[in-house]
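> call design_seq(struct)
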């Protein structure tokens, strides 16, 4: 199963709150899977303590009610990934959730350019057919590496941002509303088709 991205490494600039749970809602965008595509750069890959912190914050908000009320179980199933992306007012952060089993099969690194999207009909269902497995699966999304860290030539055709899954139109990360002067990406390969940001 796949949730959101997070980077391995020291917390450095983020101190003891790398996912922004004290001031920025853990950089989550609501109760459930974020419904749009996010193109961003991995800034941190979460560890068990990060997963538990994100879980406790979300449960304090009364989110994720279908999940078992167990932070350590959450950490064994879900890995938070912190992405830097583009919002209407400049760079912003987004926490995506990725299933631990999918994380183990897809090597991710800080600095990679990735695409996060919710599960859809093309993605497999959970390995176990239990209520808990389905609850986790419905929360997480899929991460695809578009470019490895440092590959400047690869990054050129992409633009950080949040986009509608079906049309590729850029949306406000927080509200989901289409941006009047936003970019449009190809919803299949995520490359920019038009950059109407003037």
């Amino acid at each position: 199963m796949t949730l959101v991205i997070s980077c391995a490494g020291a917390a450095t600039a983020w101190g003891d709150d790398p996912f922004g749970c004290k001031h920025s809602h853990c950089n989550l965008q609501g109760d459930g899977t974020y419904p749009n595509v996010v193109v961003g750069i991995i800034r941190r890959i979460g560890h068990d303590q990060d997963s538990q912190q994100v879980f406790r914050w979300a449960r304090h908000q009364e989110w994720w009610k279908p999940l078992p009320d167990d932070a350590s179980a959450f950490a064994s199933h879900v890995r938070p990934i912190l992405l830097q992306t583009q919002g209407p007012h400049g760079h912003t952060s987004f926490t995506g959730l990725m299933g631990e089993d999918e994380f183990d099969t897809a090597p991710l690194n800080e600095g990679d350019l990735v695409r996060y999207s919710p599960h859809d009909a093309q993605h497999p269902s959970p390995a176990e057919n239990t209520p808990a497995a389905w609850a986790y699966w419905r929360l997480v999304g899929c991460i695809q590496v578009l470019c490895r860290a440092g590959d400047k030539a690869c990054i050129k055709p992409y633009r950080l941002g949040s986009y509608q899954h079906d049309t590729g139109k850029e949306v406000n990360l927080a509200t989901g509303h289409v941006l009047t002067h936003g970019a449009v990406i190809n919803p299949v390969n995520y490359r920019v088709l038009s950059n109407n940001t003037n």
